Inverse folding.
């Protein structure tokens, strides 16, 4: 069956929940939570909590004496998060921009921000907000992709490279934020405790198309004149026919408030 370009982006909440449920998503999230060393009684802040993917797991780790605060500015995401955590009394959902966190300064024991800094206006300002929100000794977990490392196998290597270049220059606001996390966190006043890199690998075309936006972003690149139509359409069609491979690097940084 011939695949077509330009399939609309899936519902954002469904997209995020599906990505988190897949093997690569579960693995790095589990590792991030383990490294945060969550303990009973902690106050945990999840910045850009989206549809509440991680809120139940955070609440379970901090127990009935802890508190989990999920922050997002997307009303649809917040509605889903509230539905998912309605039975968890220790979870609070707050509407706010990541650049103005709605928490009392110095009251957070643990915080995480997962695949959010690549979208915000100013990653440095958000990290400064996290530094203010956390208390001395707090741990903060940061996880972001480095889209410059996106590799899609194709006989037409030039178009694969053009697709990655378009993704980094036009699609994602801060496409190389992953590699910059440790530097930016240090500049915000945190101490780096660990820096890790994982490589999510995609061997199923449909899965990759959904998660990486191969078709919809190629259509956008063609429409904007960055990639020739015939070449872009042939590249996409060939990806669906052949054994498929794509990957990128996901960087996780654990830092502490001195």
């Amino acid at each position: 069956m011939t695949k077509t370009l330009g399939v609309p982006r899936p519902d954002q909440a469904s997209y995020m929940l599906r990505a988190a449920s897949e093997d690569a998503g579960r693995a790095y999230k589990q590792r991030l939570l383990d490294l945060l060393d969550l303990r009973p009684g902690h106050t945990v802040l999840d910045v850009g909590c989206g549809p509440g993917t991680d809120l139940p797991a955070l609440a379970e780790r901090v127990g009935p004496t802890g508190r989990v605060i999920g922050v997002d500015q997307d009303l649809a995401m917040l509605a889903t998060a509230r539905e998912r955590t309605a039975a968890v009394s220790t979870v609070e959902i707050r509407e706010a921009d990541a650049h103005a966190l709605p928490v009392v300064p110095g009251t957070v024991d643990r915080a995480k921000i997962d695949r959010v800094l690549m979208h915000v206006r100013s990653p440095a300002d958000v990290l400064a907000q996290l530094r203010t929100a956390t208390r001395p000794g707090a741990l903060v977990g940061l996880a972001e992709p480095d889209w410059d490392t996106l590799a899609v196998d194709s006989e037409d290597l030039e178009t694969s490279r053009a697709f990655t270049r378009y993704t980094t220059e036009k699609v994602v606001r801060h496409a190389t934020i992953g590699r910059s996390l440790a530097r930016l966190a240090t500049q915000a006043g945190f101490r780096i405790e660990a820096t890790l890199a994982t490589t999510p690998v995609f061997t199923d075309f449909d899965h990759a198309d959904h998660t990486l936006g191969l078709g919809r972003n190629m259509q956008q690149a063609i429409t904007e004149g960055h990639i020739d139509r015939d070449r872009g359409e042939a590249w996409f069609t060939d990806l669906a026919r052949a054994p498929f491979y794509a990957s990128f690097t996901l960087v996780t940084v654990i830092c502490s408030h001195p």
Remarks:
- DSSP finds ten helices and eight strands in the chain.
- The domain at 12-256 is CATH 3.40.50.150 (Rossmann fold).
